[in-house]
Every structure is written in C-alpha cells, then in structure tokens.
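Propose amino acids for all 804 sites.
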C-alpha cells in the first residue's frame, strides 16, 4: 500500500497527482487522506476550488481533442454501421443452415440410438454369458475344495480355497453368489482345520501307542553300541579307546560307520507328515499360536497317561520298569525329533525339557517308592542295568540325566547295604560252621583252587606238595576269601555300563569291606577266644595271621582298582589292625590256657616238705606236665610259625619255672627236709632233661634260675649253704638266684644227717672261725637272733642291684 502523500502548499498539484493515479485503488488511497487533511486544517474551500479548476481544465482538453478528430470519428461510425448490417444478414443465413442441419441430425440420432440399443443388448448377453461361466467356475472350485477334503488332501483343499477366495471370487464380486461363497469360506476353513486336527490326533494316538516300542528299539540300538564298543576294546587293546565312555566323542567317531535311524528302520517308521500338514494349514490360517498351545496341551496329557500310578519291581523280568522307561524314552525321542523337524518357535527346548524333567521326576518317584520292596541284590542290579541303559540312550539324545545319576547313587547305597547284609550272613555262617582244624587237601586241583581264591603263598615245602597234604589255615579262610572277591566283583559290577560316581564306589567298598572284616570276622573270632580248647585258639590265631596278610593284599588291590579321580593317598584298612590286635589276644589266650593247665598240673603236686622218704623217680604230676608240654609242642602248637611257637613254648617253660619256684617259697612251708629237697630236685631234673631233649637253648635258659635254686637247696641240705655267700662262688653257681629268695630257702631247708648245719656254718663264718681255722671277715653280727635281719638287709641290696 503506497504511503500517504505529503502535505502540499499547492492543493492543485496534489489533486493533479491524484488524477494521474494508475488505478482506482491508488486514486482512493490518495484522495481520502487528502480529504481528511483538508478537513482537519480547514482547507476544504481551497480543495473544492482546486478540484473545480482541474475539472475545468479537463473539460477544455476533451473538447479540444474532440474538435481535432471529429471527421474521422464520423467516418468510423458509418463503417461500423455497414458492418453491422452485413452481420445481421450473415446471422440469418447461419440460422437457416442450423435449422437444416438440426433436422438431418435428428434422423441420424434416431438411427444411432437404434444401433446403440442393439449393441447394448448384445453386450448384456455377452456379459451374462461370461458371468455364468465365472460363477460356474467358482462353483466348480468350491466343489473341488470339498472333494479334496473328502480325499484327505487337506493342504491342497486349503490352497484351492485360498485361490478361490483371493482370485476367482474377485472376478464375480458383483454377484450374490460371490457373497454367499465368501461367507462360507471361514466355515470351510474350519472344516479343513478340524479335519487335519482329526488326522493329527489319530497320528498322536498312534505315536503314543508306538512310544514304548520305539523306546525298546532305542534301547536295543544302545545295547548294540555297547557290544561294539566292548569288541573294539578287545580287538584293539587301546587304553585310550578303553577309557572312552559310551556317547563320548571318541565312541561316536568310532561307531559312526554303523548308521541307524531309530525313527525310520525295519522295525519302526515314524512319519511326521500329518504334523507337517497340520503346521502348514494352521500357519496358512493364521492360527499358529493357538495350534502350538493346543499341541503342547495334548502332549502334556499324553505324558500324564504315560506314567502309571504305581510301579512293581518284584517281577523277575522287571517288565513294569522296562515298559515305563521305554515309554518315556520313545515319548522323549519323538519330542526331540519334533523340535528339530519343525519351526524353531513350535516346540522350544524349554518346553521339551520341561516335559522330560516332569517324566523323569515321576519315574524317580515311582522307582524310589518301589525300591523298599526289593530285598535281593541281584534284582537291584538288574534294576540298575535297566536304568543305566535308559540313561545312556537318552544321553545320546542330548537330554539331561543328572537326576537319574542321583537315583543311581541311591540305588547303589541300597545295593551295597544288601550285599553287606548278605555277606554278613555268609561270613557268620562260615565262621559258625568251621571245624577250626587245618585244611586237608586231597589233590592238585583242590590245591590250585585254594591258591587261586586265597591270598596265600605256600612255603617251600608246599611248592610241590605230596597229596594228601595239610594247609595251615582252616576252611573258613579260603571260603571268606572267595566271598571277599565276590563282594569286590559285585560292588564293581555296579559300575559297569554307566555309573559316574566311581569315587563313591571306592569309598563305599573300603568302608563296607572294613566293616565286614572287623565286625563279622575279627570280632567273631575274638568272641571265640573264650574257648577252653587251645587247639581251637591256635587255629584261630593261624587264621587271623592269614587274614592280616589278606588285608595287606586287599589294600594293594583296592589301590590298583580304584578310579584315578579318587587315587590320592594309600588305602589303609582298619581290619588289618583289628586282625593284628585279635592275634595278640589269641596269643595271650593261648598263654592263659597253657599256663592254666600248667597251674592245674602243678597244683596236683603234693610235696611233703617234712618227708623222710627219698623217691626213685619223678613225681606223677611232673611226668604228666612234661607229657603235656610235649603234646602241645608236637600237636597243638605245631600249626604256628616257628618263631611264635618258640615264644609260646619259652613263655610256658618260664611259667613252669616260676610256678615250681613258688612251691618251696610258699609262706605255709616253714621247713623243708633234705629228703623233700631230693624229691623236688628229682622232679626239676626230670623237667630239665625233658627240655634238654628238645635241643632248645632259649627254653633251657629260662630254667636256669630253677636249676640254680634247686642246686642251692641241695647244697643247703648238705650243709654247704655258705657257698651262696661266697662272692667268688655265688656269681658262678647262683648268678640267677634271687638273693632274698635264696636266703629264705636257706632258712627253710633242713640239713640232712651227717651234714653241717648251714646256719652254724654261717655263724662260724661270722665269728671268724672255720675253714681250717682261717679267719673270715664278719658278715653278720654275733648271735642267731640278728641273723635274719642282717642277712635281709645285706642281700636285699644285692637283689635290688641285680634287678636294676
């Protein structure tokens, strides 16, 4: 918008400028401010005058222009009038021609209309014919869908229905039949879905019925793999191959040439076509999520039908357990195959594992509930074998078997307890039925059999024995050795095929074997040491020594047989110590029995210490005693090792010596006649002669005190007891005699007729007289009253020195 005009002193110029405006808008835009300005400044009159002046000037100019061009204007008007007349004439002619053309056109339009009407009818007929053809084709395709359904070609029927809906119906959408068929499409799709579900349910039923047989085939295939693996171990003797387990990478590579499809073989064929068809149809219908959920629900229901409410393990062939595990295996194999053959989101790993875990837990619950009814270790081993076959089969299909491994651990605990109970009874029966006599061998076959089952190395004299011969142990030893070997084999038999807890086997075996040997063998033999028959105790001692040797061998055997995972330290059986301690008890018991018999015989010695009769032969009790010692040496103790036998014999003779020494030293014996000394010395000589005949210096040395004491008593009876106090003679003749006991005997022995009293000699020595008038040093103070006290004080010191 142009700006306002500036105030002019000359209103005429302003008006002139307004008149020269190029448009009406500019004219008004400039005029209005001018009028407002004129009114505001009271210039209205000058403005009117200016406008009047401009108007006068314009009129004068128009008049001048008109005067100059008047003739030309008149001429132009005349020409224009002539042209108008010609135009009127021409218009009349055109109107006439138009009326003529209009009449002709009406006739042509009538003919054209007739032609168009004819063509329209024909087109309608053609359109109707084509519509009928299209509708017939649609009806044919609709009927074809139902025909395909009748032939169970569900996917082809769905494809035909989809083609009908998306192609052919679009061509006849303007007809009612298209709407009718369009409304029937969902119902037809539902019919197809129901038909394919019916086929799928039939397939699922057949799969459920086939699951057990499928599992049986899978078990058989696993068993064949085991056999081939064992054959490869035997043929190749490869320790690295032998260390590989079933389903390991090494075993799978070695067995890859033996191809076997569990789902498609001569025995069983599982066709997944119904499932694939159902998947395709539901995917095409957009119902995949609903179908996935429905299929999962169906499989869960089938899983529940697969697991029985209870399980019996008492049948001989374990048919119930085999059927249960075969059914679970077949079900899980189908699930695994379904997961790999179908789209990823149809059967997920989580869903399959959930079903597997549920079935495994149900099976474990059933088996655990039925285990208490199994009281036979062989039956339990069969149960373990079926479960191990199941574990190895499912491990090859990448299922988790850790829960089943824990179940095997529970079964092994019960198995070891059953074995322990059975062998406890066997051990008790063997020990109770043993004759506790050295085992006789009649031929080489028996000898070889005993050597093969026992831990026994025969001495050189039995390397090539002459039959019949005698083995040092009784029959219990080889029989218990057989049971020990069987126990070991049956414990390790549990680890065959599959058992991952090898360290548990090693620990359980050591503990159970220790307990059996300690409680059922060592303790049982220890309880029989109360027997009063030395021969039985000697045989028990011999058996114990061999059992101790067997324990040492068992420790080495267990170390070599245990798994490398648990091989950390040497194995020490507490049974070894138990047998050693029981052996000590047996030795002590033998000592007790022999010494008791010796005491009984010596108690029959009826010495008349005041007797005046001198016998010609040894006392009957001494003859019986030497006969008894000879018997135990040649019969009772003959089965013991030479060193132990010698120790026992020496100990027995030492006890005899001590018992004989105690007779004259009895407090009730106050006086001993020389005749009694002679009788006593005769018995001691008989004993010494008997021991001398044995050619045993150690045994003879144990009688030295008895011999010297008897000699001292004889000297005392002869009145020569003072030699005991002569240090030059006493150290040689009476070095082993206890000083106090020697003095006590000197007091008791009565000097025989014609002999010098011993105490008189001692008193004479004390007064410096005797020995040819030669003076001797005073040993005791004068007077018989002080003799006993002074002698006791002096030789008490000697006795203490000798003991130290």
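Proposal:
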């Amino acid at each position: 918008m142009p700006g306002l005009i500036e105030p002019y002193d000359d209103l005429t110029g302003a008006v002139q400028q307004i008149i020269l405006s190029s448009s009406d808008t500019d004219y008004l835009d400039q005029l209005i401010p001018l009028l407002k300005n004129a009114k505001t400044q009271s210039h209205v009159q000058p403005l009117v005058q200016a406008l009047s002046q401009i108007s006068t000037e314009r009129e004068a100019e128009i008049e001048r222009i008109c005067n100059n061009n008047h003739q030309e204007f008149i001429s132009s008007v005349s020409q224009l009038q002539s042209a108008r007349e010609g135009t009127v004439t021409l218009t009349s002619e055109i109107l006439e021609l138009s009326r003529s053309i209009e009449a002709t056109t009406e006739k042509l339009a009538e003919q054209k209309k007739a032609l168009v009407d004819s063509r329209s009818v024909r087109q309608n007929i053609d359109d109707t014919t084509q519509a009928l053809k299209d509708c017939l084709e649609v009806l044919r395709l609709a009927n074809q869908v139902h025909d395909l359904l009748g032939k169970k070609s569900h996917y082809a029927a769905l494809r035909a229905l989809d083609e009908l809906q998306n192609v052919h119906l679009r061509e006849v959408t303007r007809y009612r039949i298209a709407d009718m068929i369009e409304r029937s499409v969902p119902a037809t799709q539902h019919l197809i879905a129901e038909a394919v579900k019916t086929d799928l349910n039939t397939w699922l039923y057949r799969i459920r019925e086939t699951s057990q047989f499928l599992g049986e085939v899978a078990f058989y295939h696993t068993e064949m793999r085991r056999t081939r693996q064992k054959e490869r171990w035997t043929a190749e003797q490869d320790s690295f191959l032998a260390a590989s387990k079933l389903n390991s990478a090494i075993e799978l590579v070695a067995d890859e040439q033996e191809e076997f499809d569990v789902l498609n073989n001569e025995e069983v064929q599982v066709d997944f076509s119904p499932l694939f068809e159902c998947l395709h149809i539901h995917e095409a219908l957009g119902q995949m999520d609903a179908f996935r959920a429905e299929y999962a629900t169906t499989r869960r229901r089938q899983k529940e039908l697969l697991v029985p409410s209870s399980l019996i393990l008492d049948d001989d062939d374990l048919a119930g357990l085999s059927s249960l595990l075969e059914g679970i295996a077949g079900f899980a194999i189908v699930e695994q195959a379904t997961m790999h053959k179908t789209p990823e989101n149809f059967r997920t790993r989580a869903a399959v594992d959930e079903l597997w875990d549920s079935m495994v837990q149900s099976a474990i619950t059933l088996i655990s509930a039925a285990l208490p009814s199994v009281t036979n270790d062989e039956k339990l081993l069969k149960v373990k074998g079926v479960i191990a076959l199941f574990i190895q089969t499912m491990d090859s299909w990448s299922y988790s078997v850790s829960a089943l491994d824990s179940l095997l651990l529970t079964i092994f605990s019960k198995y070891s307890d059953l074995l322990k109970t059975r062998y406890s009874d066997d051990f008790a029966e063997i020990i109770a039925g043993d004759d506790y006599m050295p085992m006789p061998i009649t031929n080489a076959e028996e000898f070889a059999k005993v050597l093969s089952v026992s831990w026994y190395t025969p001495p050189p004299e039995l390397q090539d024995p002459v039959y019949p011969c005698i083995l040092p142990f009784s029959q219990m030893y080889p029989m218990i050795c057989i049971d020990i070997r069987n126990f070991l084999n049956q414990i390790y038999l549990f680890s065959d095929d599959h058992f991952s807890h090898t360290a548990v086997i090693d620990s359980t075996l050591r503990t159970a074997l220790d307990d059996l040997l300690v409680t059922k063998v060592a303790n049982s033999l220890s309880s029989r040491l109360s027997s009063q028959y030395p021969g039985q105790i000697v045989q028990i001692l011999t058996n114990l020594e061999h059992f101790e040797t067997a324990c040492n061998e068992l420790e080495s055997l267990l170390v070599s047989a245990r798994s490398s995972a648990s091989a950390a330290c040497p194995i020490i059986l507490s049974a070894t110590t138990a047998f050693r301690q029981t052996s000590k008890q047996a030795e002590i018991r033998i000592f007790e029995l022999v010494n008791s018999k010796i005491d009984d015989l010596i108690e029959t010695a009826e010495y008349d210490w005041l007797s005046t009769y001198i016998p010609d032969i040894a006392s009957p009790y001494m003859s019986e005693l030497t006969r008894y010692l000879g018997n135990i040496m040649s019969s009772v103790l003959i089965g013991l090792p030479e060193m132990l036998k010698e120790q026992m014999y020496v100990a027995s003779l030492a006890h005899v010596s001590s018992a004989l020494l105690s007779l004259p030293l009895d407090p009730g014996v106050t006086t001993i006649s020389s005749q009694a000394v002679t009788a006593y010395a005769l018995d001691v000589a008989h004993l010494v002669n008997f021991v001398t005949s044995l050619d045993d210096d150690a045994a003879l040395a144990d009688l030295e005190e008895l011999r010297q004491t008897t000699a001292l008593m004889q000297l005392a009876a002869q009145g020569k007891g003072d030699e005991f106090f002569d240090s030059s003679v006493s150290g040689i003749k009476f070095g082993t005699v206890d000083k106090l006991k020697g003095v006590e005997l000197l007091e008791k022995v009565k000097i025989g007729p014609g002999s010098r009293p011993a105490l008189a000699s001692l008193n004479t020595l004390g007064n410096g007289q005797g020995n040819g008038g030669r003076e001797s040093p005073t040993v005791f103070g004068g007077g018989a009253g002080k003799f006993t006290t002074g002698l006791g004080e002096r030789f008490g010191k000697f006795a203490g020195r000798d003991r130290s």
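The two ends are 152 Å apart (CA to CA). Residues 8-151 form one domain.
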